[in-house]
Every structure is written in C-alpha cells, then in structure tokens.
Task: structure prediction
Amino acid sequence: MSIESLILDFLEWLGPEARPYAEVMDAWRTTCPRLTVWEDATDRGFIARTHEPGRGPMVNRTPLGQKFLERHRK
Result:
C-alpha cells in the first residue's frame, strides 16, 4: 500500500469534525519509519492541530486536506 493510499485512509477516518489528539495518536501512531502517514499529512498541510477550550488538543482536516480527499476519492 502506498503512502498516498494511507494518507487518504487517514483523512477519511479523521472525518469532517475535529477529533481529540489523543484519539488520533492512539489510532495512527507508528514506530515504523516507513509509515509516516501523520508526518506526511502534516507536512502537506492536510491536517492541523488546534486547542479547543474544554476539549484540549484536537486534530482536523484542513481545506487542502479535504480537497485532496475529494480529488482522489469520489
């Protein structure tokens, strides 16, 4: 499976609403240097980490990430 496919899977899983950072890291953390989904999605500007009062750190798709997903998954 290519990194592009994994990034698309990650963006789909993330969904349109922000998810708690801990939940995202628990589901997508890896120690394998070949699987850099989180880092690649961040470097490409597809996801953003924010802080919401009362909820803490959150992760969401950016508009660029949404466009990438729409362009590759119909």
Notes: The chain has a mean pLDDT of 88. DSSP finds four helices and three strands in the chain.
